[in-house]
Design brief:
Mg(2+) binds at residues 79, 98. By secondary structure, this protein is of the alpha/beta class. The chain contains 10 helices and 8 strands. The protein is 43% helix and 17% strand. Helix 5 (100-108) links the parallel strand 4 (91-94) and strand 5 (113-118). It binds thiamin phosphate (TPS). Residues 17, 46, 48, 78, 93, 115, 117, 136, 138-139, 143, 145-146, 169, 171-174, 191-195 line the site of thiamin phosphate.
């Protein structure tokens, strides 16, 4: 059973969020990738398996948890609150549907934190009103990981930090080359997907990006 107050403390301290995305990682490589990301230094890790069945997500999550627990990294399940509840992950992440935070919370109970994707200032403010525990904010840049979304750019990053007091994780096209302009624009926390998962040396890539974060 995860302990919410410990998880929320990790969430507030977190700067670098990694995602094991099955669009890039074969199921048989999920545990190895989980270890590489966590040993490299991600502060939070998400399992994102679009199109997988709940049973498949559950089995992947169960294979990741011993590694994330060993390394002290909270595990967040994308889209499947019922799986988060069954496996006892630290968090769940939901998309932009109405009431998605309340619906997820009703399923996961009081000990699992709930994050929500937002794509505009209005959505970020709404997610805070909906009592999300953190938000993702983006995609900042066009990205092959979420090809149907219009990038929102960097111009609202400072403002979103003025309007929203939750931890805000900037996402979408984040990589080492762009880190300085993203931080310059006011970001404090970032999510990295393809730049880590496609790296030839995942641990080294995570370490390099982490070293750039204040
Ligand atoms: C914490 N989301 C927005 S952009 C993107 C995703 C998956 C692609 C990033 O990939 N915030 C959180 N989790 C999520 N799943 C989302 C937002 C949704 P890349 O780094 O390859 O551009």
């Amino acid at each position: 059973m995860p302990d919410l107050s410990a998880s929320l403390q990790s969430l507030r301290a977190a700067r670098l969020y990694g995602i094991v995305d099955l669009g890039y990682v074969k199921p048989e490589n999920v545990v190895t990738m989980t270890r590489a990301l966590a040993e490299g230094g991600v502060d939070i890790l998400q399992l994102r398996a679009k199109g997988a069945t709940p049973a498949e997500v559950e089995s992947l999550a169960r294979s990741m948890l011993p590694v994330t627990r060993e390394l002290g990294v909270p595990l967040v399940i994308n889209d499947h609150p019922e799986v988060a509840a069954i496996v006892g992950s630290e968090g769940v992440h939901v998309g932009q549907d109405d009431d998605s935070v309340a619906k997820a919370r009703a399923i996961v109970g009081p000990e699992i934190f709930v994050g929500k994707s937002t794509h505009s200032l209005d959505q970020a403010v709404a997610a805070q009103a909906e009592q999300a525990d953190y938000i993702g904010f983006g995609p900042l840049y066009a990205t092959g990981t979420k090809p149907d979304y219009v990038p929102i750019g960097l111009q609202d990053i400072t403002r979103v930090h003025e309007l929203v007091s939750l931890p805000i994780f900037c996402i979408g096209g984040v990589n080492e080359a762009r880190a300085s302009e993203i931080l310059q624009a006011g970001a404090r926390r970032v999510v990295v997907v393809s730049a880590f998962l496609l790296a030839s040396d995942v641990r080294a890539e995570v370490k390099r990006l982490k070293a750039l974060l204040p």
